[in-house]
Amino acid sequence: MGNIKLKHYVVRKGKHGYWLPTAKMRAMGFGIVSCGHDGPDAWAIAKEWEERYQRARKGLEKAPAHLYPIGSVGDGFERFRRSNEWKSKPPRTREDWDRGWKYIDSVFGDVDPKTVTFEMLDRWYGKLKATKGAGEAGRALKIWRALYNVLAGMKLCLPEADPSQIIRKTGVPGRTETWQEGEVVRLVKEGWRTGYRGLACIIAIAWDTGFAPVDARTLTPAQAVTSGTDMAFTSDRAKTGEPAIGTLTARSQRLVEAYVAGLDYDLHDDAPIFRTKGFKPTGKGGRPRLPVPYTKDSLIDDFADLRRAVFGKGEMRRLMDMRRTGAVEANAGGGRRSRPLPPRWRTASTKTGSCRRPTCQLTLQRFGPRTRRAESAGDCSVRNRTSSES
Fold this sequence. Notes:
The chain is α+β, with helices and mostly antiparallel strands. It has helices at 23-27, 40-57, 73-81, 84-87, 91-108, 118-132, 134-153, 181-193, 197-209, 213-217, 250-261, 296-311, 321-332, and strands at 9-12, 16-19, 33-37, 224-227, 230-236, 243-247, 345-347, 361-366, 372-375, 381-386.
């Protein structure tokens, strides 16, 4: 057998090949790789790992936090994450994959996908249902099935032979929770008094407009418009991309204006308006944290803290349930049941096309006294529910 020189490749006991990283390489996350018996196959493995290290060293790819065996489930997923197909996925889709992958990685990350059996998947799914609930277990199983198709495309397993297809996924009952106006007012007031002022504005806007949490927390100054004394926000829905407009009650408008006036910095037109509470060290010390734009996780955590402070530990309703409240009120107020969207959030459109900038007619509908008023300012109409100012 001919000799070959590969960087960081050594042969032990005259027959076993290894790719041995240096201390600096190990600090980057690379570890010893057993390449098998010395020969062309072992050389190919060592060469692949050397190329991966060189790409990481040059900043062309992220150094692995964990090294997966060649041809394993984790190795296939790492290859997929480096592909253009992965980069083209919407951020929320990639987030969903990562959320499901953390359950797959701990059990199947180092496993050859061809060796995964129905019994292994059945035990894994059953344990997830018992410990994490049907929702998280179902998400993990969905991501496994999608990942199996990717691995099959890489020739790492047999196509159309996924043993998980035998497993019947347990459905999750749909949410039915709603909020009352008085409860929302209590949340907003408590948030404002305790320093969660950005969160208080997000809650008020979500209640008035029916925007999804992701749409409410990412609003920017460029999306704020006025018509007479009314204020509204435009939004391209994060899920569908359709343009929409949501108008605010006078109370929420004053809240947003007071919040912006209280900022000690100027906002760029494309910068998120609403920020976290931040932290200023007290006499007990602590590390200062500047207010930053809300992320999905920080919004969930802060809302949970505020909800617990107002209603106690037993309250489990979420911010997104305010959107459902609008649909329930729309049906109760005689809205079309075929499209149970909150009347306070309607797609801005005309007979000839969509109106993305709401220089439009604002039609404000009150569900309490059921009065309506309109101000003419353009060529499209938007309906909105307002609440009493008391």
